[in-house]
Amino acid sequence: MPSKKIFPAEKSSLHARNPHRARYDFPALVASHPPLAPFVVVNPYGDESVDFANPAAVKALNRALLAHFYGIRDWDIPDGYLCPPIPGRADYVHSVADLLAISKGGTIPRGDKVRVLDVGVGANAIYPIIGRVAYGWQFVGSEIDAAALKNAETLFARNPALAGGFKGRLQSRTENIFEGVIRPDEHFDLTICNPPFHSSAADAAGGTRRKLRNLGKAAPGKPVLNFGGQSNELWCEGGEIAFVRQMIRESRLFAQQCLWFTTLVSKQDNLPLIYAALERVAPRAVFTLDMAQGQKISRVVAWSFYPQSEHEDWAKQHWR
């Protein structure tokens, strides 16, 4: 299936609106969140940094970034839950904002009238936090983990900058993605998702060991997850490709209720299978949005069942 790339594959830096494009300013981050200070060290290159193999340091850095850039003073996650790197998550949000702008003559829609569904929102709620602060969007977050969902709701309740921007929905059937979450009488302008990357617990552990080796922290025994993650956050049967193909199949059932469906795709080798799955449900548009952070390349695949001629009508109906 033809896929239009709206960002070039050779893109090597974060999105132009991403506030994390520059090196971390640790004095400024410590000023915004003083508990970060004990974790700041000088690395072998003479630069200030933190030990990214240390889960406590990663969480402290995230708290500082959220406080400094987003005004979020009360952010926490239960032990063992995913503590994601924020710059890459922000790139996803800003990239799909550009996607929505295509439907509004190049202007990004902002405010409560824009409704976004985050599939697998997680305890950290990073995507809704960034989207709410940056664009004022309304979010619904789905989860199969009740504890994770409760934590996401608590984060929005405790932070004034996020007030009124989030509702959680528990997915009671783990084999479903949109079914049981999207109600018959509602619409979403956008769906987002960071699907489980691995196909098994062993595969997830192997990925963690590779990351630790790259950080020079390889150790025998069970690896410590520097970014954390529960089983459903890290792996599912069949891995990323199985999850995304199920999402594509279900998206056809809600073709008229969602303007854009999107998902992060970590493995480039999965793209041909994803395009083949999309061809079977016959969307009217498919885009691939390439993203990069340093040498790490990822991409978002987006599809819509609405012809371009009807996007302006959607914008007039839902965004005025």
From TrEMBL:
An annotated GO cellular component: cytoplasm
Catalytic activity line of the entry: adenosine(1618) in 23S rRNA + S-adenosyl-L-methionine = N(6)-methyladenosine(1618) in 23S rRNA + S-adenosyl-L-homocysteine + H(+)
Manganese listed as a keyword: no
Enzyme Commission number(s) from the entry: 2.1.1.181
Pfam families (alphabetical): Methyltransf_10
Location, primary (coarse class): cytoplasm
Cellular localisation: Cytoplasm
UniProt KW Transferase keyword: yes
EC top class named in words: transferase
Coiled coil regions, renumbered to chain: none
Gene3D superfamilies associated with the record: Vaccinia Virus protein VP39 (3.40.50.150)
Sorted UniProt keywords: Cytoplasm, Methyltransferase, rRNA processing, S-adenosyl-L-methionine, Transferase
GO molecular function, one term: 23S rRNA (adenine(1618)-N(6))-methyltransferase activity
Entry's Gene Ontology BP terms: rRNA base methylation
Purpose: Specifically methylates the adenine in position 1618 of 23S rRNA.
Family: Belongs to the methyltransferase superfamily. METTL16/RlmF family.
Name of this chain's protein: Ribosomal RNA large subunit methyltransferase F
Source species: Formivibrio citricus
Lineage, broadest ranks: Bacteria, Pseudomonadati, Pseudomonadota, Betaproteobacteria, Neisseriales
Gene name, Swiss-Prot/TrEMBL: rlmF
